[in-house]
Design goal:
Layout: H1 2-8, H2 19-77, E1 82-85, E2 94-97, E3 101-107, E4 113-119, E5 131-136, H3 140-145, H4 148-153, E6 156-163, E7 166-176, E8 179-188, E9 191-197, H5 203-213
Antiparallel strand pairs: 1-2, 3-4, 4-5, 5-9, 6-7, 7-8, 8-9
């Protein structure tokens, strides 16, 4: 106590005015040091707790970007498109499809034709085909009526569609338990033209490539 009093008081016993700012500075320094330690501890805790979340977000962003690049590449690979045209007596139906797809055509020789399209190769069975087309001797009204039970049940949604100046029917939904797709159907002279996809995975190609470029001679 004697030394402290000796430091704080001058010869006249009056407190040295320079001591007060020094004390305040020391207090501020101590408080700042304590706060720095506290905030650093909180920062370390938050960093350690949030790092897994940050890592997960980064991984998701990278995966999303990778998928986008792969999807963009797959779309570019589809171009330029290819075409198939049915014989004149079967309406010169023009089907446009991605160049990465393979096709298989069965011409029955009795005024009917069946077309199959699928990525890479056309499986013989056990798959929902990316693209189908048929011209049959079936009556359009009867063929359309055959889908009424599924429409009433709510499995299929019906709407109108027009191609080459001819109004037809479009059906979207479940044609079978494990077959969700889209189909368009038109009267073609005394026959019926049907073009469809058996999987919703190919609906984008069906709408943007196939239907967009579909033509036939009524």
């Amino acid at each position: 106590m004697f030394m402290l009093k000796k430091i704080k008081l001058n010869q006249e016993g009056i407190l040295n005015p320079l001591v007060i700012p020094l004390i305040i500075s020391i207090i501020v320094l101590v408080v700042a040091s304590v706060m720095a330690v506290v905030y650093y501890g909180k920062f370390v805790d938050q960093r350690d707790n949030n790092q897994p979340v940050i890592d997960s977000a980064v991984n998701q962003a990278e995966a999303s970007q990778k998928k986008k690049l792969e999807d963009d590449f797959a779309e570019r690979e589809k171009l330029p498109t290819k075409t198939f045209t049915s014989p004149t007596e079967l309406g010169s139906v023009k089907i446009t499809y991605p160049k990465t797809w393979s096709t298989y055509v069965i011409s029955q020789g009795d005024g009917q034709i069946n077309y199959y399209g699928h990525p890479n190769y056309v499986p013989s069975q056990g798959v929902n085909y990316a693209l189908r087309m048929s011209v049959t001797n079936q009556d359009f009204a009867k063929q359309n009526k055959a889908f009424e039970p599924l429409i009433k049940k709510g499995d299929l949604k019906s709407s109108s569609v027009q191609v080459s100046g001819i109004v037809g029917v479009r059906l979207d939904g479940f044609f079978k338990k494990d077959q969700e797709g889209s189909l368009v159907m038109f009267p073609l002279r005394d026959k019926t033209l049907e073009v469809w996809t058996e999987s919703k995975d190919f609906r984008g190609d069906f709408d943007n490539i196939v239907l967009k470029n579909l033509t036939f001679v009524p």
